[in-house]
């Protein structure tokens, strides 16, 4: 970042104070009052002269020592342009601030998209209707809405706090992120300690989704994707679908003793048409006859094998997510320290003007 201003002297300037002393300007008498009215020091190119501009920039970027730090490459001639190069520490602070703002802005957009998708799903399924409002607590779209709202609000708080250098917003942002990091670490520890019981919880969830297969479009979509993606049928065996009132062998209708088409090995006729009746009567077949029509293995075994095969990727993703959040905490703490330092220097400057 280069700051240029017109100069009128002829000789080389070795320091910022000597340069400022050669500039023909006078500080207005109302400068202390105008500075006191400013709640946060921002780089403003106003009518108060070059020294005010340079001082405000030093406060904004968070210099560590004093204003002459920015004089490393200052030169001027009569009628020419003066250039000031910022120190490496100032560049570092500026890059960290931009990184914090950009990352939070991206997560804000992601949170808003997730929020819109969740609300669209709830409205499209008429989940707020009087006859369906009782089951909204188990609606997966409600989870999307909640997570999107929290992510957008938290990221927007960090983005605005970094842009405006608002210590209240930054402290709240860092506190919430710290709580989330601790919660995620505790969740990982609990999941690792209860890994023997996780399969039972997954089985219970799978069976509950199978019971509500026809009544909940979201659970139907998730169940179909699991069965087609992992090439499985039911929780432990394809006969588990007997717990569904429509696929139970005692139920009336054409679906009795059948399985969903997502259990079929080839649910498409001629590769284009979805055959919704391909699983009809599959529960009546023995395993030898059924293996040419549907997947025999249950999804719980397939899920366990998938987790074992991708355990390295899962651990890597978890570490990266935690690392990004911890890095965000350090950057926010560094920015808060710089803001406190700049405000202290601002107060010292105000006292020197009195």
TrEMBL record:
Cellular component terms (Gene Ontology): plasma membrane
Keywords: Cell membrane, Disulfide bond, Glycoprotein, Membrane, Transmembrane, Transmembrane helix
Transmembrane segments: 94-120, 141-163, 169-194, 313-336
GO MF annotation list: enzyme binding
Keyword Membrane: yes
InterPro entries given in the database record: Tetraspanin/Peripherin, Tetraspanin_EC2_sf
Subunit-structure text: Interacts with ADAM10.
Homology family: Belongs to the tetraspanin (TM4SF) family.
Protein name: Tetraspanin-10
Species whose genome carries this gene: Sinocyclocheilus grahami (Dianchi golden-line fish)
Higher taxonomy: Eukaryota, Metazoa, Chordata, Craniata, Vertebrata
